[in-house]
Amino acid sequence: MSTKKLAALLCALLLVIGIFAGCSSDDAEPSATPTAPADTASPSTSEPTDDEDSSITFPLDEPETFRIWNGPMSTTANMTSPNDSFAYQEAEKRLNVHIDWDQPAQGTENEQFNLIVTSGDLPDAFMSGYYIGGLDKYINDEIIIDIMPFLEDYGKNFLAIAKITDDTWKRNITDMGRMPGFYNISKEIEPTWWGPQVREDWLKEFGLGSPVTYDDWYKMLTMARDEKDSLGYALSSVDGLDDALLVGYNLINGFFAKDGVIKYGPYEPELLDYLTMMNKWYSEGLIDPDYTSYAGFAYFSETPPLMLNNKLTAFRSFWTMFDLHKMQAGEDNPNFQTVAVPCPVNAPGDTRKLTIYSTPDSRVGTNVNTITTSCHNIPVLVSWFDYFYSDEGEILADYGVEGLSYEYDDNGKPCFTDIVTNNPDGLSQNDALALYTIGSFHSRQYDWARQITPAMSSYCTSAGAIWDSNWDQNAGYESVLGVTLNEEEANEYSRLYQDITTYITETIVQFINGTKPLGDFDQYREQLKTMGIERCIELYQQAYDRYVNR
Question: 533-548 and 487-513 are packed helices; what angle lies between their axes, rounded to 10 degrees?
Answer without folding.
Answer: 130
